[in-house]
Amino acid sequence: MAKVLLGFMGAGKTTVAGYLTDNFLDMDTIIEEKVGMSITDFFAEYGEAAFRKLESETLQELMKIDGDIIISTGGGVVISEKNRELLRQNRKYNVLLAASFEVLYERIKNDKVYQRPLFLNNSKEDFHGIFERRMMLYEGLSDLIINVDNRTPEEIARIIKCM
């Protein structure tokens, strides 16, 4: 079964996955390889609906892989009911990396490598609303919730390995 890392953007899903295994599957990277451009550029050119469709197809493909794998999802994967159903079928192995809004907001604001479209295109208040709505979805799908505010990626990985 796949261990699926869920969480809002900036929670550290990709970083933590790298401490769990060298062969983790990062959905955002896979999508960028498929489309030949960054997610930010894809959003700008084709819109969020096209991205969400591609994201759902990618999750479905990855969930079919046999073996013990780690999947690092994108922050918005839980928006789609289809994706939530796939994640419900993976019960016992969904891990939420949870952080406070302020910690995430600062991480995202200071991240010069990954420019997130939803961050760039929304006020702090609107972005907080997106965070709140997604947290409810993440929590409903997660079997293990780890607060990452004051933990290192190594500590988080050790907790997940105990699953």
Automatic annotation (TrEMBL):
Residue positions binding ATP: 10-15, 116, 151
Involved pathway(s): Metabolic intermediate biosynthesis; chorismate biosynthesis; chorismate from D-erythrose 4-phosphate and phosphoenolpyruvate: step 5/7
Record's cofactor remark: Binds 1 Mg(2+) ion per subunit.
EC identifiers of the protein: 2.7.1.71
Name the UniProt record assigns to this protein: Shikimate kinase
Broadest EC class assigned to this enzyme: transferase
Residue sites binding Mg(2+) per the record: 14
GO cellular component: cytosol
Keywords tagged on the record: Amino-acid biosynthesis, Aromatic amino acid biosynthesis, ATP-binding, Cytoplasm, Kinase, Magnesium, Metal-binding, Nucleotide-binding, Transferase
Quaternary organization: Monomer.
Family, per entry: Belongs to the shikimate kinase family.
Principal location: cytoplasm
Biological process, per Gene Ontology: amino acid biosynthetic process; aromatic amino acid family biosynthetic process; chorismate biosynthetic process
Cofactor section: Mg(2+)
Binding-site residues, substrate: 28, 52, 75, 134
Swiss-Prot/TrEMBL catalytic activity: shikimate + ATP = 3-phosphoshikimate + ADP + H(+)
The protein's role, per its UniProt record: Catalyzes the specific phosphorylation of the 3-hydroxyl group of shikimic acid using ATP as a cosubstrate.
Gene designation per UniProt: aroK
Location(s) in or outside the cell: Cytoplasm
GO molecular function: ATP binding; magnesium ion binding; shikimate kinase activity
Keyword presence, Thylakoid: no
Organism: Streptococcus pantholopis
Cited InterPro entries: P-loop_NTPase, Shikimate/glucono_kinase, Shikimate_kinase/TSH1, Shikimate_kinase_CS
Gene3D superfamilies for the chain: P-loop containing nucleotide triphosphate hydrolases
A Pfam family annotated for this UniProt entry: SKI
